[in-house]
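Re: the pair you flagged

First of the two:
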Amino acid sequence: MQGLLDFADAEVVQDVVRQMRLNPDVQGIIVDVDPRWYLAWQLYSRVGEGSKLWCEFLRGLSDSKSISDFPVWWILQIHSVLGYGLTPPPDFSFHPPGWNGASQSRGQKGPFIIKIILYPGSKMNFSVPQLPYPVVKEMRPPARLAASPRGGNELNSISENGTLGLILSSSSGANYAVSAAHCFQKGDMVDVTDKTGSRQQLGTVVDASKLIPVPAGTLANPFSTPKLYQEEDSAIIEVFGAVSPVPHKIEKIGMVDYVATRGELHTRDYVEFYGMASHLSSGEIGGLAVTYDLQHGSSVYCFEKIFEMRPCSIPYVQVAQNISPVQLGDSGAAIVGYTKNDCGWWGNVLGTDSFMGYATYSEHTYARAARNLPAGASLTLSLGQGAVV
């Protein structure tokens, strides 16, 4: 996500945020990798600019607004050339030959697009800033924090709201469970249902992110004082000594080998989680939400720099089912991703709408857990490279 994080901090994107967040119809601003650029990068690295397939791609780029407008026979041909499996991180410095002429009519400068996300029924005829990047308007249902509205307990659930994400062990011998802050408050006693269906006390919430709702009748201004935006949604539960959990293991997934940093995540990476409502669910990393509103009860909370978890697309081409991989009750579930040899903890479920899930980064939760250890103790699960704790 590092390329998108850097782009989100650019003045051109911050200007869009300043202008668009004054519109009450706007629920969020997302930056993403343009699927046309992504396909160009993958295709060029495999076939080169002199190939018939590359020339057909440039012609299609001139005639199509999106990859989904390309002929089906051409999409299938692309699959036979590019194949499936793990792909390397995108090289955002790559500039495809012939890109300017094929995409100039839409103001394309680089690999990114900016999305203005609107509430249902919003007016679409307002003007957007003229930028050297495509700016598109997209209407989505209101997003909600993914706590359970119905209560009850299921396998791997905590209390009556969310999901047990992961158990972290420490060098002091203490264990800490992680989940979502919007499900708990500091000092709460937390119960869990085990595999036999019996309910037992798990532990006490020793720390939780403080979530600040947007005051009623006002808009979420990212530059307000006090700051209304939050990037973290972490609850840390100190597990009672009488409980004997298996650290670093996730139901139906297995052992987690390391904690990923934000820079190690990439758009279109395959991810999985095990949630109270969805059970084993999968998807892929989508765009970066520079700012996004999520509802919870009668309150609205505005988050910044969270990431989308969307349904898996066809490799290289974003043609996804419009069904969110996240359901209400999955809050706090640990999201994992894979390298060639390891399973990493990449994030935690935050919210959902009908089409998309939203998630926070594992390194923030890991850092909060580390701050609650006894003096001299450390967490036994290692952190990836480049993290700021």
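Second of the two:
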Amino acid sequence: MRSYLYSILLWMIPCDCTCNWYYREHITRHCYRVTNTIIFLIIPLSRSNQQNKGRRGYSTTASTQTGTATTESGDVQLSETIANAMLSDAIANYDPSKDLGSPEDFQQVANGVFQAEGSISAYIRGTLIKPLFTLGQALSPGSLAFFVRLWHAVGKAGTLRLVLSADNRWILRLDSQSWTHILGVFTNYFCFVYGEKFIGFRKLAAIYRIGNSSASLEVFKLVYSLTTTSSQRLLSLPVFLASVGIEYDGNSNPSTVFTDNFQVPSLLFLLGLWLGDGTFSIRIRLVAARKGNLWLIPTIRLAQLNSAMNQHLFDMFAAGVKALGVSSHARADKRGMLDVVLEGSTNVLPIIDTLFTQHIHFLYWKYPQLEMLYKYSVFVKSGIHSTHIGLIAILEMIYSYPSERDHSLGY
């Protein structure tokens, strides 16, 4: 009965959005127009089809490795043949004329994704220094579409490959150890980032200017100051310097001073940042003082390591969303993470209406999560959420998406 009522409610929802929900990887869409109304019958495809994984490397010299891995749900194991076919087909069938969104808009999104998921580092072999650029994401149809477009956008610089993570998941990764690619291509393309990524590119440029094979105290201080790798080194800076015959002056900081990026980020950069590290949910709060009274709280959360650089990033984030009349707040937790949270319809719905629905073609692997918030926004704008039947329909919609919950729908 409830499912029947839910279908009726969908017929009642007015159409005031752009109807370009097209991702075949995530949904099968049927839209029926009746005067000024639309019914959305959105049928998610099976998650096993969404999350196929495999391994193959593509560059000027392609590389392959054998192996199998499970999907995120752990219920499907892929052969190397299937895995290789996924990536090779995505590359062979890529047609830039079919890309949605301008190259400039895509660059902003890609910068946000790199801010969240990328890294800049360097490693030392003897006294030779090699740079390392990496950007990865769990393999899915959405990430395939994103990375194949990105790889072409940077002129196929670096290697596009699939690697197996420590927890037996396939990761699609773009990486490079080439000074030419990193300083000549990636530094220019990923110029809108902040913090350790923004400064990391400049530290690599300084290392290269001084001489990447020079046994210089300043060079090794620069290498060790790269945040993403300093804690992973087998030898501390004083021990390493002693091993190569360089006297340590007691100060681990390089003499070169670097300034962070203070340009207010674009909304598309923030979209990319959410793609990488964002989570989207609707919290259900039962108000104890009033029996049966429920609060539905849409939430967008972004988490980063708690550091001065990431605090600056979140200050820039707040300035970016302020243009939409949206307020955000950052808070530190006991795990050493810094969260910036948008809560409530007042703060979340403008993001959905202004950013996500207008740029749905850039949602990629986060489409399923954002689909739930979009459906919620349609209910709220129609006013149906304030009715008993509408509230039931929203709850059923929320519970139709997999998530860890404290209570069942029946509760």
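The radius of gyration is 24 Å.

-B.
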